[in-house]
Task: inverse folding
């Protein structure tokens, strides 16, 4: 591993491979921008498959049913929130463009609607989200209709208990019951969702599972399963299982890393290179420098050093889990350029006393500052560089966890960052 | 404490209980008294307002002193420690790791103090081998290169949870003595110079409970002064010192490593199975209920500890906790670390009471001796002349009590591995059969089949993920088994994560910040444990 660097030239370089980074690449190729994307894709596997916009507002515990109305409220109460820098129409367009793209790749999603969807969680609580994969859509419908439904779980599958889902939803969904079965061919020891999902790509496994499901479904019209309906063709696996059982079927996301997250990661890694993106998914950018004629990313893979020369760069490196931000005892830093990070004055202010405090922890509102063109700012409030844009949850003044707005911030700000980068590239 | 009942079983018991001796306080001392009395044929009931080792017993390094720490300040305490250390190694080896201890002096430490140390140890009868810096660094390569003197002493580590559970289990087996967690004394019913009954609240079933006994023992540790005052006894004078300890993700040293100087902050690193514990700061406090580590205490411990072991400066820490040590208020103005680590047994005769006593102060290493002295007094008052047997009878083993030891899970994995017995805590390899065993046989868990009860009695939730994943798996399993049948399980899950967080809050940086972000995205973002309905 030595020798002279290999050079790639591109119009746009996207740094980061979470939802924001992938959304940025999708928006860029849809606009015919030559794009390279670099960054470890690990964090995508931790997503649930649900695409939230706003599910909670400002420290309240009430669920948000109308995210668009909530957005109007947010503009009044938290004007610095990144979502407040994006027009509602643009957010709608961004979600539509993103979910349409996934649909054309075999992973159909519901379109962004006027209201949130009340979706199920693996412990039987409910969650407000904007778009759900087609494989999960029948669950919220059945809940709303109080349809006779059976949650089927599997011997050997840890962390997913139909009894738990039913116990916590019984008051709201009296027609919900549960049954446990053995997954075909996996009757001993622990079973893993990812393995089950890949097994269901095989028709014979689906046929056996359909028989087992019908054996226990009784009068239930709808069957809920942990998320295991195939890895690469979930829509097809769902359709086939519904045909074989004669019942509606839906998935509930499991503990991360769960199948819906792994599906997204595998889809991005497979499809984006086919659509012309230069994707370097397993490496971290170690240096980023700017000159008058462009930016240079430095990284290495097992064959040696790589240099990516780009006309514009979108920084979508995420927070602590993805490495965009680093929490040091002395303070929070931005990893790549040491951009100034807006943050609490002292480490002892990072977290509140109580973990599940609905108001959230101040550390999550830390992040980098951008102007209205989504260009990061220096300490003096000037643009770091005209070629640099930023998107996703690295941005300050939001708490994507308490706000249930991770995908929304990622997709909406990626849309705006790509739009601004496109203006720059065309000028 | 949340407003939700801790109980997930139907209450059916009587609300008045009778026993010969009521022991208040489920720390190591209280459990030691319970066992000691049982071996003398005396029945007791042990209660704790929370659960076993909820105070200083569960919030220390787990150090079994050789006595060497006290040779310069308190030779009598040093000798006591030496004797108890040898005795416990012989009688309760299942709770002890004979790690050995090093005392090390580094550049800047007082050479005169270091020089006289071996002789002081010898005077107290404590084995002390002088090692060259090179020998010491060969034993523990993490030691500073600035080391100039090192001595090896017979320090060891002891698991107070395992010890407390075995004490209770042995008492139960011996004469049917009973332990009840979550039972708090509210007041005493007194007449004719005696306590007749303790009026308690049963937090488990959320109802009042009266306990009648002939003798009452206050083993409340830091809470002993408050409990004594309920019986109008004004002769217990305690000061409270908050100690803060950090837990590292890895075990950094095989030995207990002590700083060879006068006791101070960050002067000891104790192995605890797969982790190390770094301590201790000492700060005077007035409030017993709301103590927690501060960033300043954390930084001070790390800074001081790094002088002995430089790797401590960059180590990954998974927890920090603070507990209050009860210190006996002595005459004069000696510092908290100086002359106050002895124990006191008060018979309260001067307060006009003939059947109440208080045992407090002291340290983990001398718990058995404290229990012996207390039991001598209580037995004498009951007219029982049976001698103490805890200095000669070994503490029997009980696998249901052993899941707090990291080695148990490994042994189980190698010996009994059944593919269908799934590992619920993956960091610490705790299988579902361990939980069944704990519910079936671990003291105090019979009625409380909850996540918190499992966590106290096993390694579950003690690894790098600090329960954020295994808590959910254990919760699902408890629902599966029918121990939870409604939203109580989720409230318990939330309370469990809130409780674990108290120990994480001050050490969240580096990798822990990433771990925490993931945990919070799961617990709050997906599962909505920050907004559970109906209980806020």
Result:
């Amino acid at each position: 591993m030595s020798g002279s660097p290999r050079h790639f030239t591109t119009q746009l370089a996207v740094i980061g491979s979470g939802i924001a980074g992938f959304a940025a690449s999708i928006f860029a190729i849809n606009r015919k921008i030559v794009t390279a994307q670099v960054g470890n894709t690990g964090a995508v596997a931790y997503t649930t498959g649900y695409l939230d916009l706003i599910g909670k507002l400002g420290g309240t515990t009430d669920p948000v049913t109308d995210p668009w109305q909530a957005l109007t409220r947010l503009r009044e109460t938290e004007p610095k929130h990144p979502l407040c820098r994006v027009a509602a129409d643009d957010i709608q367009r961004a979600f539509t463009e993103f979910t349409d793209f996934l649909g054309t790749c075999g992973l159909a999603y519901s379109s962004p609607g006027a209201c949130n969807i009340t979706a199920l969680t693996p412990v039987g609580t409910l969650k407000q989200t904007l778009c759900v994969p087609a494989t999960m859509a029948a669950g919220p419908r059945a809940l709303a209709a109080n349809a006779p439904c059976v949650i089927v779980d599997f011997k050997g599958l840890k962390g997913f208990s139909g009894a738990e889902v039913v116990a916590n939803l019984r008051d709201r969904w009296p027609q919900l019951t549960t049954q446990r079965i053995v997954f075909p061919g996996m009757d001993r020891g622990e079973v893993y969702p990812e393995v089950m999902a890949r097994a269901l790509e095989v028709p014979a496994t689906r046929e056996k599972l359909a028989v087992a499901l019908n054996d226990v479904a009784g009068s239930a019209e709808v069957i809920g399963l942990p998320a295991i309906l195939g890895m690469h063709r979930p829509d097809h696996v769902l359709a086939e299982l519904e045909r074989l059982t004669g019942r509606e079927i839906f998935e509930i996301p499991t503990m991360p890393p769960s199948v819906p997250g792994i599906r997204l990661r595998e889809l991005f890694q497979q499809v984006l290179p086919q659509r012309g993106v230069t994707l370097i998914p397993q490496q971290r950018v170690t240096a980023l420098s700017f000159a008058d004629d462009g930016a240079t990313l430095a990284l290495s893979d097992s064959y040696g050093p790589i240099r990516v020369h780009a006309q514009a760069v979108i920084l979508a490196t995420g927070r602590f889990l993805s490495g965009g931000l680093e929490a040091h005892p002395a303070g929070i830093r931005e990893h790549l350029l040491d951009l100034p990070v807006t943050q609490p004055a002292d480490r002892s202010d990072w977290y509140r006393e109580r973990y599940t405090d609905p108001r959230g922890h101040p550390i999550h509102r830390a992040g980098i500052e951008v102007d209205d063109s989504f260009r990061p700012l220096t300490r003096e409030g000037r643009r770091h560089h005209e070629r640099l844009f930023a998107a996703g949850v690295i941005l300050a003044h939001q708490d994507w966890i308490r706000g249930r707005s991770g995908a929304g911030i990622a997709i909406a700000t990626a849309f705006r960052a790509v739009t601004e980068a496109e203006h720059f590239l065309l000028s | 404490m949340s407003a939700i009942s801790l109980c997930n079983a139907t209450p059916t018991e009587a609300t008045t209980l009778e026993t010969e001796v009521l022991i208040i306080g489920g720390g190591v001392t209280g459990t030691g008294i319970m066992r000691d009395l049982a071996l003398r044929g005396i029945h007791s009931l042990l209660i704790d307002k929370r659960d076993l080792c909820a105070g200083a017993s569960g919030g220390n390094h787990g150090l079994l002193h050789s006595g060497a720490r006290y040779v310069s300040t308190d030779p009598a305490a040093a000798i006591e420690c030496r004797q108890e250390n040898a005795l416990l190694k012989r009688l309760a080896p299942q709770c002890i790791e004979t790690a050995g201890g090093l005392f090390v002096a580094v550049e800047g430490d007082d050479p005169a103090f270091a020089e006289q140390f071996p002789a002081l140890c010898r005077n107290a009868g404590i084995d002390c081998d002088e090692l060259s810096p090179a020998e010491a660094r060969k034993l523990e390569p993490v030691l500073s290169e600035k080391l100039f003197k090192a001595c090896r002493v017979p320090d060891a580590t002891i698991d107070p949870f395992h010890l407390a559970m075995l004490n209770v289990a042995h008492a139960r087996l011996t004469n049917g003595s009973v332990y009840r967690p979550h039972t708090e004394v509210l007041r005493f019913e007194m007449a004719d110079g005696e306590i007749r009954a303790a009026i308690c609240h049963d937090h488990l079933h959320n109802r009042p409970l009266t306990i009648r006994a002939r003798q009452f023992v206050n083993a409340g540790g830091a809470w002993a002064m408050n409990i004594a005052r309920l019986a109008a006894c004004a002769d217990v004078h305690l000061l409270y010192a908050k100690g803060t300890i950090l837990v590292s993700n890895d075990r950094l040293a095989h030995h207990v490593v002590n700083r060879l100087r006068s006791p101070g902050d960050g002067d000891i690193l104790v192995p605890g199975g797969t982790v190390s514990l770094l301590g201790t700061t000492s700060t005077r406090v007035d409030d017993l209920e709301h103590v927690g580590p501060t960033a300043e205490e954390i930084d001070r411990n790390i800074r001081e500890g790094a002088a002995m072991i430089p790797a401590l400066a960059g180590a990954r820490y998974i927890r920090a906790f603070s507990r209050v040590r009860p210190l006996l208020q002595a005459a004069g103005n000696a510092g908290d670390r100086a002359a106050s680590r002895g124990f006191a047994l008060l018979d309260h005769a001067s307060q006009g009471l003939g059947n109440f006593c208080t045992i407090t102060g002291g340290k983990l290493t001398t718990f058995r001796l404290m229990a012996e002295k207390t039991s001598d007094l209580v037995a004498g008052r009951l007219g029982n002349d049976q001698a103490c047997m805890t200095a000669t009878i070994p503490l029997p083993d009980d696998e249901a009590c052993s899941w707090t030891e990291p080695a148990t899970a490994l042994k189980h994995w190698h010996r009994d591995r059944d593919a269908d017995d799934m590992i619920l805590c993956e960091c610490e390899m705790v299988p579902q059969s361990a939980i069944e065993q704990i519910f079936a046989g671990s003291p105090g868990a019979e009625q409380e089949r909850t996540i918190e009860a499992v966590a106290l009695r096993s390694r579950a939730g003690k690894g790098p993920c600090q329960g954020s994943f295994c808590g959910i798996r254990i919760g699902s399993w408890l629902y599966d088994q029918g121990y939870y049948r409604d939203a109580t399980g989720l409230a318990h899950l939330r309370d469990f994560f809130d409780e674990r967080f108290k120990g994480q809050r001050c050490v969240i940086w580096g990798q822990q910040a990433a771990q925490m972000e993931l945990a919070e995205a799961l617990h709050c973002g997906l599962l909505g444990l920050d907004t559970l309905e109906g209980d806020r």
